[in-house]
């Protein structure tokens, strides 16, 4: 069967690619578009390393078909920073040393920005439950949660 | 002369001795002398680390020994 | 050791690779591509134990898009040995593990590999390969492995050091090791209280989020380039050289950024296959493991059975211990049973003991190192026993440990005396900490555990190149798994008196970096750090000599203070010079300034950790929640405290997962049933509270800053701390992990029934 030609918007820019009908969005991002910031940890939707924003919704891209991107709008880790300014979540991850090997970090950052879009003052527990879909094996989550709550505080202050 | 301590499971090769004195200026000569005296140790010895007066060397090689040095043969450890 | 005042050591700058990591730009194992690249897939045995009768690859080879197929026939059988890690690595075993020759020894064992134009074609073609197996009965436990009538995995395996177990013929017990002291019978004769238990821990995986991945290109020049995610690029080079029958100098290994390892990425699985496929296809080959392959076919750590008999006097003094330990090695010899035997009694002075440890093969994947390999299981056993002694004697658990704790000069159970160590300081710090006195709620319990691990030394190299602007580039061969690059930048900054932002740390490859042993064994900050410090001092000496030239004085007369070369008093027209000022004139004063150092460090003094765990059990479901956790550790010197804390917190999380939920679940045929993150249940953010860390610094005299290793110790105490907390919360002494809800609930129900009967 011939490949599908998909036209979509990624990180605010028009993009297009060819994909197999059964190919995942994760595979298309990494292999057709060279956007390797989104990581593959399990391919069964259990680790969150492949998190992207799909039409404003946080999804594991390993469980989304690449073809579903047709006519839709996505944000990946590559689109979180604006211009040369890091997003507050990214800056706080660095300040709080909320990463060690860093492979889960793109997924966490996408998931955290999604949380803070929905709720600008999450409690620690709310942050932990929202991020329960992102596995980290290095940090024990402590500094990640601190970074996210600190980013939330900074963003609240900035919007005042 | 330096004293060498071996794990108890090596006793089957040394006829029951756990503590042996060996006249050797460096680890290299000490291990050679041990192997000559107790050939059964040869294969196990090459995978042992050596502790000299408390400092543990994975590759003891030519580390010098004092006349009153206390040497222990212990399994090598690396980690993960 | 005098208290040195540091300018940069102990500060918390942002790591140099940080921006790349938070933007997704950092390149990990699967993020690399080469022109013309093919994709590889592995055919794996579905049987846990089977003779391979024949392999017919013709259907795969004739599939359109397939460019190469390999089986064990494409590899030369070798009996070479490689000195590495725990000792002489048997290349024959590692090669057989990479691709099976005569027998498939576990579910997932690689039997053939295919390279094709897409991953999908490669997998489908691999599935077409016809393998004829003669299925054999699998050996899936220690008890089965040591039974008289057990199927034998390796016909040529006999138990090394069989003094106590004479038996003729082959065995599944690869080795027996023994440590002893004093007179066991007399010791137990003095005991006024004795506790005896048998503990079991399951097979668990390191759980790194990044699967194994590599790209290999074998060129017309008969040289191979390998890009791979690894903790040890030089190990990859040397193992591939042996398995692929090449000279090591013909293989260049470029380590990618690494997405977790914990010891599991110190050996090779895919790289030799990728090289062989590339050689046949004459194109680069990329191979990435799926998550199920990571579980089934990489290297988890040993399941164990540990019997402990511990005797003490009424005042809490330990008098005797008898310990038998069986560790599963997986399909080939080489479990960390020796390390477990060395660690189990390490924290304590005991005048009479016997420790025996057995290395046992079973039809499961060959175990690989997992963070303090062998020690967490040993700590679970001994710390549970110590807890029981404390309870029986109605003594405070910390006091009992303090009474028996080793300090400098005490002999380790494996022989040599300890140097300066921090165990007693640690225990006293725990006693004073508010966590010990915090009140507990309903169904809550508090547990304490301490643990021991060595910190490796071994070979390291470092080079530092000065820039004309006074910046410094430092390169080592150690992949950065947790912040070691920024730690190295801090060391260079400290020695040269420039800011950490002016230091650019990087990781070289096997052609550009001086030889270094693995990133692991808690050794990078200590041993590679020492090489970095020495290389920086080499640079400093050169800077002094260049300043001397500029001032026309003797180099011996030049001092160095606060990042400046100081001219001898009275030198005309001479002002102190900064690194930048001297570097600006490098070309005129003799050429580029490059500093270097290489060393083989002795093992750093050991590390001790002590943890307090509060957990709450739901008696209706058996589910437990960690409500508070404090980890104490003697790290010698915290170079970058944030990453030291991070290592401690990460080790706690892994230990908690091991204690509460993680285990390999096999069916009766030896097929793993939970080879995915849904059912291999690791802790997530909602499972844990904030993890408080208390850093104690008892300087390691072998290191200029007092650094010990830090990475591995934190996984050792949690199994025991959780087990003892569970005892406190439920009144039940659990001796088998994990303490998953079904197990805990069944025990709670049984206890309720027993209590009910008792009150009738």
Q: Short summary of the structure?
A:
The complex is a heterotrimer of chains A (160), B (80) and C (760). Chain A has 160 residues and is an alpha+beta fold.
Q: pLDDT below 50 for ≥5 consecutive residues: which ranges of chain B?
A: none
CATH fold node name of chain B = Ubiquitin-like (UB roll)
CATH class of chain B: Alpha Beta
Anisotropy-based shape of chain B: globular
What summary fits the major beta sheet of chain A? 5 strands, mixed
Order of strands across the widest beta sheet of chain A?
Answer: 2-1-5-3-4
CATH level 4 superfamily of chain B: Beta-grasp domain
Per CATH, the architecture of chain B is Roll
Question: What is the element layout, followed by pairings?
Answer:
The complex is a heterotrimer of chains A (160), B (80) and C (760).
Chain A: E1 4-10, E2 13-19, H1 25-32, E3 51-54, E4 57-60, E5 73-75, H2 88-95, H3 105-118, H4 124-130, H5 142-159
Parallel strand pairs in A: 1-5
Antiparallel strand pairs in A: 1-2, 3-4, 3-5
Chain B: E1 3-5, H1 11-14, E2 19-21, H2 27-37, H3 42-45, E3 48-52, E4 55-57, E5 70-75
Parallel strand pairs in B: 1-5
Antiparallel strand pairs in B: 1-2, 3-4, 3-5
Chain C: H1 18-22, E1 38-44, E2 50-56, H2 58-61, E3 66-70, E4 81-84, E5 87-90, H3 91-98, E6 103-104, E7 110-116, H4 119-127, E8 130-135, H5 142-146, E9 173-181, H6 184-190, E10 193-201, E11 213-218, E12 224-228, H7 233-243, E13 251-255, H8 271-281, E14 285-288, H9 291-297, E15 304-312, E16 318-330, H10 337-343, E17 352-361, H11 375-393, H12 397-404, H13 423-432, E18 444-455, E19 458-466, E20 472-476, H14 484-496, E21 503-507, H15 524-551, E22 559-561, E23 564-566, E24 577-578, H16 579-584, H17 586-589, E25 594-601, E26 604-617, E27 624-634, H18 641-660, E28 691-696, H19 718-730, H20 741-759
Helix pairs in contact in C: 10-11, 11-19, 14-15, 18-19
């Amino acid at each position: 069967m011939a490949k599908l030609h998909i036209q979509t918007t990624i990180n605010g820019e028009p993009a297009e690619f060819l994909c197999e009908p059964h190919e995942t969005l994760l595979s298309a991002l990494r292999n057709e578009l060279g956007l390797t910031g989104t990581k593959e940890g399990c391919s069964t939707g259990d680790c969150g390393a492949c998190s992207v924003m799909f039409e404003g919704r946080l999804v594991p891209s390993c469980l989304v078909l690449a073809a579903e991107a047709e006519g839709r709008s996505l944000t990946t880790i590559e689109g979180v920073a604006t211009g040369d300014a890091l997003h507050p979540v990214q800056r706080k991850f660095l300040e709080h040393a909320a990463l060690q090997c860093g492979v889960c970090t793109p997924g966490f950052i996408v998931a955290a920005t999604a949380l803070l879009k929905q709720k600008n003052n999450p409690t620690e527990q709310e942050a932990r439950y929202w991020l329960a879909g992102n596995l980290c094996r290095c940090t024990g989550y402590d500094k990640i949660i601190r970074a996210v709550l600190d980013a939330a505080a900074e963003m609240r202050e900035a919007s005042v | 002369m330096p004293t060498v301590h071996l794990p108890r499971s090596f006793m089957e090769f040394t006829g029951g001795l756990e503590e042996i004195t060996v006249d050797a200026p460096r680890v290299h000569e000490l291990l050679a002398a041990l192997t000559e005296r107790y050939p059964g140790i040869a294969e196990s010895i090459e995978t042992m680390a050596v502790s000299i007066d408390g400092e543990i060397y994975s590759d003891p090689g030519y580390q010098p020994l004092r006349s009153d040095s206390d040497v222990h043969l212990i399994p090598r450890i690396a980690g993960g | 050791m005098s208290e040195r005042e540091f300018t940069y050591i102990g500060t918390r700058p942002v790591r140099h690779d940080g921006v790349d990591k938070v933007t997704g730009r950092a390149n990990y194992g699967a993020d690399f591509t080469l022109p013309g690249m093919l994709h590889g897939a592995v055919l794996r045995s579905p049987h846990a134990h089977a003779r391979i009768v024949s392999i017919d690859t013709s259907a795969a080879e004739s599939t359109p898009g397939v460019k190469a197929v390999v089986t064990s026939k494409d590899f030369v059988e070798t009996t070479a040995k490689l000195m590495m890690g725990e000792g002489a690595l048997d290349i024959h075993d590692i090669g057989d593990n990479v691709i099976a020759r005569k027998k498939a020894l576990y579910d997932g064992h690689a039997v053939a590999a295919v390279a094709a134009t897409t991953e999908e074609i490669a997998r489908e073609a691999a599935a077409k390969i016809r393998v004829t197996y003669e299925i054999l009965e699998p050996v899936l436990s220690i008890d089965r492995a040591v039974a008289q009538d057990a199927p034998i995995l390796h016909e040529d395996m006999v138990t090394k050091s069989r003094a106590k177990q004479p038996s003729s013929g082959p065995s599944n017990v690869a080795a027996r090791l023994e440590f002893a002291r004093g007179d066991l019978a007399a010791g137990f004769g003095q005991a006024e209280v004795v506790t005896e238990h048998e503990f079991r821990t399951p097979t668990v995986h390191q759980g790194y989020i990044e699967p194994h991945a590599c790209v290999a290109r074998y060129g017309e020049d008969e040289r191979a380039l390998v890009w791979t995610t690894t903790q040890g690029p030089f190990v990859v080079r040397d193992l591939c050289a042996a398995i692929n029958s090449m000279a090591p100098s013909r293989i260049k290994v470029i380590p990618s950024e690494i997405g977790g390892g914990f010891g599991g990425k110190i050996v090779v699985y895919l790289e030799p296959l990728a090289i062989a496929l590339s050689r046949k296809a004459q194109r680069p080959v990329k191979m990435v493991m799926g998550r199920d392959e990571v579980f089934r076919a990489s290297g988890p750590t040993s399941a164990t059975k540990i019997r402990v008999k511990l005797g003490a006097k009424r005042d809490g003094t330990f008098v005797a211990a008898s310990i038998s330990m069986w560790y599963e090695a997986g399909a080939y010899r080489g479990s960390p049973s020796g390390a477990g035997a060395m660690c189990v009694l390490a924290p304590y002075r005991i005048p009479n003991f016997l420790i025996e440890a057995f290395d046992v093969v079973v039809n499961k994947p060959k175990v690989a190192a997992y963070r303090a390999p062998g020690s967490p299981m040993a700590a679970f056993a001994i710390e549970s026993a110590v807890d029981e002694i404390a309870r029986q004697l109605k003594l405070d658990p910390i006091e009992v440990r303090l009474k028996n704790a080793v300090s400098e000069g005490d002999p380790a159970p494996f022989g040599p005396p300890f140097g300066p160590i921090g165990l007693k300081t640690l225990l006293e710090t725990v006693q004073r900490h508010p966590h010990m006195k915090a009140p507990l709620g309903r169904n809550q319990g508090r547990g304490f555990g301490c643990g021991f691990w060595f910190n490796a030394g071994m070979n390291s190299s470092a080079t530092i190149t000065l820039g004309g602007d006074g910046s410094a580039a430092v390169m080592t061969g150690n992949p950065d798994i947790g912040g070691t690059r920024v730690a190295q930048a801090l060391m260079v900054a400290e020695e040269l008196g420039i800011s950490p932002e002016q230091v650019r740390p990087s990781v070289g490859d096997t052609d550009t970096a001086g030889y270094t042993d693995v990133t692991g064994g808690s050794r990078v900050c200590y041993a590679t750090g020492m090489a970095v410090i020495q290389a920086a001092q080499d640079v400093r000496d050169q800077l002094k000599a260049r300043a001397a030239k500029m001032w026309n004085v003797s180099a011996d007369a030049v001092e160095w203070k606060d990042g400046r070369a100081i001219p001898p008093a009275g030198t005309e027209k001479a002002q102190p010079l900064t690194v930048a000022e001297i570097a600006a004139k490098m070309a005129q004063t003799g050429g580029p300034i490059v500093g270097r150092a290489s060393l083989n460090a002795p093992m750093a003094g050991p590390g001790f950790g002590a943890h307090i765990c509060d957990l709450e059990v739901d008696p209706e479901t058996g589910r437990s929640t960690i409500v508070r956790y404090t980890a104490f550790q003697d790290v010698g010197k915290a170079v970058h405290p944030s990453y030291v804390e991070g290592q401690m917190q990460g080790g706690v999380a892994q230990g908690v997962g091991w204690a509460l939920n993680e285990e390999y679940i096999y069916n009766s045929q030896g097929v793993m049933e939970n080879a995915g993150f849904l059912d291999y249940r690791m802790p997530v953010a909602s499972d844990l509270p904030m993890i408080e860390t208390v850093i104690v610094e008892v300087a390691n005299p072998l290191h200029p800053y007092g650094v010990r290793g830090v990475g591995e110790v934190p996984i050792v105490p949690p199994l025991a701390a959780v087990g003892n907390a569970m005892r406190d919360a439920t009144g039940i002494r659990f001796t088998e992990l994990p303490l998953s809800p079904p197990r805990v609930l069944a025990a709670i129900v049984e206890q309720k029934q027993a209590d009910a009967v008792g009150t009738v």
